[in-house]
UniProtKB/TrEMBL annotation:
It comes from Elysia crispata. PANTHER family: SOLUTE CARRIER FAMILY 22 MEMBER (PTHR24064). One of its GO terms (molecular function) is transmembrane transporter activity. Residues 110-538 form the Major facilitator superfamily (MFS) profile domain. It is a multi-pass membrane protein. SUPFAM superfamilies: MFS general substrate transporter. One of its GO terms (cellular component) is membrane. It is found in: Membrane. This is Major facilitator superfamily (MFS) profile domain-containing protein. The chain crosses the membrane at residues 145-167, 179-200, 206-227, 234-256, 262-281, 355-376, 388-410, 417-439, 445-469, 481-502, 514-533. It holds the Pfam family Sugar_tr.
Length: 553
């Protein structure tokens, strides 16, 4: 058995200097903080684009307000704005073409009075003092821009994921992280300058792209600086930063109800990170070794040993370099080039009917998970009735619990069964939202309960699918397969905002539940399909296509 002194591998060196010492824990903390920043800004639209009650403004009344000020104000509204019985309030998108005299209210059939579309609106300030929706007037026939904004966020995630991987492999984890982090910070401040819908859509795309890009860079760096057996707690610590960011966002949104003030308040904490991360975050020693920069990797290992109060033999890493011949280095370079040929690696899966079917099921599951997760989260104010702040707090707590449950439960019942159960719970809870309507019950608190159960189930399923997917794919095609699944998953996220607006197409209580019904049906379908997949718990990772095909249920 090789000892660390032989300089066999980087893992041997990490074992020698402490694979879970103060240095690694500090790195997890830094990743936690960076991920918190990404979590704050990716889902900021929940509050900056918060849904506000509104109605048509009274024509000619420049100081009109949503709240009725006095009896004279009430008469003006009644004479100008029709009553919408379906929404139990004044019309949001149409007004009378001509004002109706008060004396004619009792003798005139008000449904026959001609109406026209509104050109001006007034908004309630009960929850938000101002939002992007009210400032850019994304209401009525412009309401679709809300879905466009969320879709642009999902498109940014997709592009950012691809760009981050390429730049990270080319320039290094640290440089990629710092570039996207600083770019993201500048965009966070500049977003308050978006005064038109096209500008806002572009900013949302770039914020999402840079956010996911620096998150992926720091996530990979964090997992590469620990041994494989420590990657689960390292990944869990990083992902919990996302939830911490949600908590900070909730507090800030509660304190600052004006969307521009909220945006600036969330951007300010990024400044210390832009300075501190430059000095505190190292380059990945694995990436440096892969690029042949052994002396730089050696310096980082010496620093790890110093912080962890261990000693590193002077030639530990350099011995490995000296033993490599020119032919071995050429062979390693050729293997690295082959490993980056994504299309060839995916072709290996496509040629195997068994693995092709499994990849298709996994891709569909990723798409559904992304669709439901972001559909419920980014459109929470429209889908889940009730206080948006309390609902958001519940979602954040449930997400933490789902992550913890994944860590413990998968040890006992495996991946496949637990994934299917999680998806069935999430999808089933969404589908059950139709029952209160059928039986005529008050649906507000029931929908809140069921939608949160659905979000809990899909969060757990999302955590499992990240573990399950690489365990089903062979080593030559593992990274490419995960990349394809993630890409298709983002496409599902891009569709979710439009599903979330089905209530604008379908009227009544059924329309309010329509998004959850679609999400639930797709989640249940994904769970049923995953029953066809084999169990992978306590199995070694398949190295070849043949080994992957031989994994049985």
């Amino acid at each position: 058995m090789d000892t660390p002194e032989n300089g066999k591998t980087l893992d041997d060196a990490l074992s020698h200097v402490g694979d879970w010492g103060l240095y690694q824990k500090r790195m997890v903390l830094l990743s936690f903080l960076a991920c918190a920043g990404e979590g704050m800004h990716l889902i900021t639209t929940i509050f900056t684009m918060g849904s506000r009650d509104f109605r048509c403004a009274v024509p000619g009344l420049l100081n009109d307000t949503y709240d009725i000020q006095n009896e004279a104000h009430a008469r003006l509204i009644n004479a100008s704005i029709p009553w919408d019985s379906d929404k139990d309030g004044y019309s949001q998108c149409s007004r009378y073409k001509n004002s109706v005299n008060e004396s004619a209210w009792e003798t005139t059939n008000m449904t026959s009075v001609p109406t026209v579309s509104c050109s001006r609106w007034v908004y309630s300030s009960d929850v938000f003092a101002s939002s992007i929706i009210s400032e850019l007037e994304m209401v009525c026939d412009r309401k679709l821009y809300i879905s466009h904004a969320n879709m642009m966020s999902m498109a940014g995630l997709m592009v950012g994921s691809i760009t981050s991987g390429a730049l990270s492999d080319l320039l290094g984890r640290k440089k990629s992280f710092l570039f996207f982090y600083w770019f993201h910070m500048v965009l966070a401040f500049c977003s308050v300058l978006a005064t038109t819908i096209p500008t806002f859509l572009i900013v949302r795309f770039l914020v999402a792209a840079t956010g996911i890009a620096f998150y992926m860079s720091i996530f990979v760096l964090c997992t590469e600086i620990v041994l494989p057996k420590r990657r689960v707690p390292a990944a869990l610590g990083t992902n919990c930063g996302w939830v911490a960011g949600m908590m900070v966002l909730l507090l800030m949104a509660y304190l600052f109800r004006y969307w521009k003030t909220l945006q600036v308040a969330l951007a300010i904490p990024l400044i210390p990170g832009a300075i501190g991360f430059f000095w505190l975050i190292p380059e990945s020693p694995r990436w440096l070794l892969n690029k042949g920069r052994y002396s730089e990797a050696h310096k980082i290992m010496v620093d790890i040993a110093r912080v962890n109060k261990r000693e590193l033999p002077e030639k530990l890493l350099l011995q490995e370099t000296d033993r490599q011949t020119t032919s071995e280095k050429s062979k390693n370079l050729e293997q690295n080039q082959q490993s980056t040929s994504g299309w060839k690696n995916l072709l290996l899966l496509a040629k195997s009917p068994v693995l092709a079917v499994r990849l298709a099921i996994l891709s569909f599951s990723w798409a559904v998970n992304s669709m439901v997760y972001y559909g419920v989260t980014l459109n929470m104010g429209a889908i889940i009735q009730g206080d948006i702040y309390i609902n958001f707090l519940i979602l954040a707590v449930l997400e933490v619990l789902s992550y913890l449950m994944v860590i413990f439960v998968t040890r006992w019942i495996g991946r496949r069964i637990f994934y299917c159960l999680s998806v069935f719970v999430g999808g089933g809870a969404c589908l059950v939202t139709i029952l209160p309507i059928v039986f005529g019950y008050d649906t507000v608190w029931i929908n809140v309960l069921l939608s949160n159960i659905g979000r809990f189930g899909i969060s757990a399923a999302f955590g499992i699918i990240w573990l399950y997917t690489p365990e089903l794919l062979p080593t030559p095609s593992r990274q490419s397969g995960i990349g394809l699944c993630s890409f298709i998953g983002r496409l599902g996220g891009m569709v979710s905002p439009y599903i979330a607006t089905l209530d604008s197409v379908i009227d009544g209580p059924v329309g309010n539940c329509a998004p959850l019904l679609v999400f639930g049906a797709l989640a249940v379908a994904a769970g049923l399909l995953c029953l066809l997949l084999p169990e992978t718990a306590k199995r070694k990772l398949p190295e070849t296509v043949e080994e992957a095909e031989n994994i049985k249920r």
